[in-house]
Amino acid sequence: MLGTFRLLLAVLVALSHVGVTVSGLNPGVVAVVCFYLISGYVMTGLLRTHYASVARVPAFYLDRALRLFPQYLAIAALTLAWFVITGRHTAFLQHAPEWGDLVNNLIVVPLNYFMFNGSDRFTLVPPAWSLGAEIQFYLLIPFLLLWRLRMASFAIGLVVFGMAAWGELNTDTFGYRLLPGVLVFFLLGSALYDVRGQKRAAWLVLGGIAATALGWWLLAVAGQLPVTYNRETLLGVAIGLPALYLLGRLPQHWLDDRLGDLSYGVFLNHFLIQWLGIGQPTEAGALFVYLLISLLAAALTQRLVEQPVLQLRRKLRMVRRPVPA
């Protein structure tokens, strides 16, 4: 029962992008870390249930493409049309697009490397940098599970994340954005799925919270805690792991499903809502209107764009079993 939680996280991302902070912390970063945890949890369940062999991996990739790209491409196309018609420039649309810019936005993964390739100077859907990290995780996770490489990968990711948090690597880049560091969050969610319903699940969550608290203390002593997003990423784990543990034990509910259906659209469309005229609202009434328009737009794109491909995704998950002789 994660739909309502996912919608809340998408709303926090949308609020963070109009400058809303909580006690000086960026709630969008906390939300993105929670999204990473959820992705690891859900993708592991999806693979274990429907795509549990090497032969089924291409179908898993198609399933994920049909989930991510329809709404993303719709919002990207609408944003490109708005940019061409109005000619207005923004911090993320600084110039007329070249072919390379269009390719980056089409395949998404290069957007995750904006700090190296400058793709953030023309990004139609600014939060899509994190979709680039998600896609790379999708490409990797089937083989980490099938070849039992999850623990080794987690250890490598933990080293990278620790070096970033400690300042040996760029903290923002390797501790929050690129897969080598954030893989620890995905894999924590993945491990939690595999021990769900067992006593080990509670121990994993308690261990994760304890490790987060220890990391917080060590970074505070070293003077590294205030470095960009260190506090937010640790909070994301401390909030996301117990939320996954508790919500994953609840039965599915239709209202939760419907609310969850809106989360992806809100995540994708809120910059376009700002650019269409809302701007960056600061007062409570304007923030309410901003979020309401984003929710309504998300409901529209979910209905018109995502729902038509749902049947195909369901068919992909129907594994044909051999008939006994």
Summarize the structure in words.
The chain is 74% helix and 0% strand. With 325 residues, it is mostly helical. The longest helix is centred in the last third of the chain and has 33 residues, at 284-316. It is globular, with a radius of gyration of 20 Å. 40% of the residues are buried. Mean pLDDT is 96; it is low at 320-325.
Question: Roughly how many Å apart are the termini?
Answer: 40 Å
Kindly state the percentage of residues in helix.
over 70%
Largest sheet: none
Question: Count of helices?
Answer: 13
User: Which residues sit in consecutive blocks of at least 5 with pLDDT less than 50?
Assistant: 320-325
Mean pLDDT rating: 96
Please give the radius of gyration in angstroms.
20 Å
Beta-strand segment tally? 0
> Any idea what the shape is?
globular
Beta-sheet strand percentage?
A: under 5%
Content-based structural category: mainly alpha
List strands and helices in order, with pairings.
Blueprint: H1 3-16, H2 27-50, H3 57-86, H4 99-107, H5 114-117, H6 128-146, H7 150-165, H8 171-177, H9 179-194, H10 199-222, H11 230-247, H12 254-278, H13 284-316
Helix pairs in contact: 1-2, 1-12, 2-6, 2-9, 2-11, 3-6, 3-12, 3-13, 7-8, 7-9, 8-9, 9-10, 9-11, 10-11, 12-13
Overview in brief:
Helix 8 runs parallel beside helix 9.
What labels would you give this structure?
325 residues; mainly alpha; disordered C terminus
